[in-house]
Amino acid sequence: MSLLMKSLASSAPPPPPPRFSPRTASTPPCETAPSHARSHSRAMTALAKLLPLLAPDDDWSLALDHLASAHGITTDVELLFSPPLPPHQLLPPATLDRLQSLVWGYLSAPSTSGTYLLEQSRSRKGKQPQRYSTSLEDLDVLLDGGFSAGEVVELCGPRRSGRTVLALFVVLLHLLLHADKRAAWLDTTGSFDPHRCLAILRDVLIPRLHALGGSFASEDGKEPAAEELAIAVLDRLAVSRVTKSGDALDTLTAEAGSREKSETLSMVVVDTLDTLVGGDALSNESAQENANLVAFMRRLSTLARSVHLPLTVFVITSAIPVAASTTSRAPAPAAVTAQPPPLSSLPLPQPLKPSLGPTFAYLVDLSLLLTPAEPLFGPVDGKDRTVLEVTRNARGDKGATVVFKLERGVNLEQLE
């Protein structure tokens, strides 16, 4: 638990995490069961860490020392995007070719035989995937029970659209309902607010579940105070301040492999991904930054799809207004490349585009766009309202919308 989180707790140790049990058959609508190199400090994976895993019987120390000291190359993406390297006795052409071949193989998308996929499909037949509530009843229905374990979900939108609050609601509700689960929050901007988390749990989620007939009573039948219960839940949320993508993956790997905690890691949030991978450079079509992003997302997806520990991973990204010149109704000159279609199907006065580029959505399983409702409904009817739109869904339909309101930054409630 972070120091910020500890500031919420008293000096006494937190009580054992209570378990939620519905008192009635009416349960809440929640859960269904590398000069080029030195400027890029966000490179994906250190070669010194990667190569012993890819070729454990080979000694790469001399070659890696030469790459780092002579060329500033220390990571996988830097090696692949470096200019042609002159031969050296510590790095013969054959060794360099083998290095690059190993790294290309690691970063390339893996192939799978059709027979294997068929066997997987047959083994899953009749099994309901584990789903976690979105905290919005209609969205749970649209997603056939909610978010799925093993998938990467994008929460995209402009600032102040409710992306972070929605992620908090999903994670905190999940931890509240499952005392044997824990979550990891990778904070890339230093904006995580534990006091907001406390308010969401104490003032919104716990009373809401009590109103539905739920109980968090211990074996002696005593119902814990809302703040006491909230602090116990927050003790299972690990918050890490990360500024580099490699550090983020290392932190997540360590959390997933931790044997010191009895609870199982089940949810991860990256807030925000733009800061971590360089949204500005990506929007300017930087080839190396795009390679960094793809490599990061592939490793993140691999972690999420672990057979032994599938995770639901949320990445928060930004949507930015399309430049006015690109929204003109006048025909574009022939030399100008056509713009991608708008991110949203909604009739927004100023269309939005994803800050990480139009192809990012294909790196995730599910993409949800959150848009403030004021441009659509006016300053009165749209105040404190957000329209959530399913813009990509690898396992179902897209295009559906859900509207919710957000009061005081802590009370999120679906609207009919």
List keywords for this structure.
416 residues; two-stranded antiparallel ribbon; 36% helix; alpha/beta; single chain; RecA family profile 1 domain-containing protein; 2 domains; ten-stranded mixed sheet; single-stranded DNA binding; ATP binding; ATP-dependent DNA damage sensor activity; 14 strands; Rossmann fold
Walk me through this protein's architecture:
The chain has 416 residues and is an alpha/beta fold. It folds into 2 domains: 47-107; 130-322 and 339-414, Rossmann fold, CATH 3.40.50.300. Helix content is 36%, strand content 18%.
- The fraction of residues assigned to DSSP E strands is 15-25%
Name the CATH superfamily assignment of the largest domain.
P-loop containing nucleotide triphosphate hydrolases
State the shape: globular
Name the helicity range.
25-40%
| Structural domains: how many | 2
**Distance between the first and last residues' Cα:** 38 Å
Give the C-alpha Rg: 24 Å
Mean of residue pLDDT values: 82
Oligomer: single chain
CATH top level label of the largest domain: Alpha Beta
Give me the CATH architecture of the largest domain, please. Answer: 3-Layer(aba) Sandwich
Q: H/E element string?
A: HEHHHHHEHEEHEHEHEHEHHHEEEHEEE
Structural class: alpha/beta
Low-confidence stretches: 9-14, 22-43, 324-337
Tell me the number of helical segments per DSSP (H or I, 4 or more residues long).
Answer: 15
CATH topology of the largest domain: Rossmann fold
Could you give the count of β-strands? 14
Instruction: Characterize the biggest β-sheet.
Output: 10 strands, mixed
